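Weekly puzzle thread! Below is a chain. First person to post its structure in token form gets bragging rights.
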Amino acid sequence: MTTVEKSIDVDVPVSTAYNQWTQFEDFPKFMNGVDSISQLDDKHLHWKVSVGGVEREFDAEITEQHPDERVAWKSIDGTTHAGVVTFHRLADDKTRVSVQIDWEPEGFVENAGALLQIDDLQVAADLRRFKELIEDQGRESGAWRGDVDRSTS
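Winning reply:
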């Protein structure tokens, strides 16, 4: 299992950063390699990704979600991965977004990428693009303020 942990500070209120992150179908705007995400219901997503010439599709479940605090997920088929994004208020207009992703590389290309820490570079670049997106917009494109308790997943 490979783990990537990265953080970035964004110059927007915590609710703005969190609300934008709940817009999963917008992830291709800032996540390189994510072709599309379809939100199936409040807790289920279908991902299509292309990384290093390898295309994958998988479903993921939101395992925990609390407004302005965290979003956690895990794959429920296909590629093995899980993660959590946390949001930390630094000031009225500044938020730290922290990402932890655990995943199981498959095949030569993914294992080589993990060994060379290309996934770390990718997550850092994705977070920089998220910062640019949310700061340039100045507001979120939508919001889902529902709560998903870990115990009900």
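Puzzle host: Confirmed. Bonus trivia for everyone else. The chain has one domain: 2-140.
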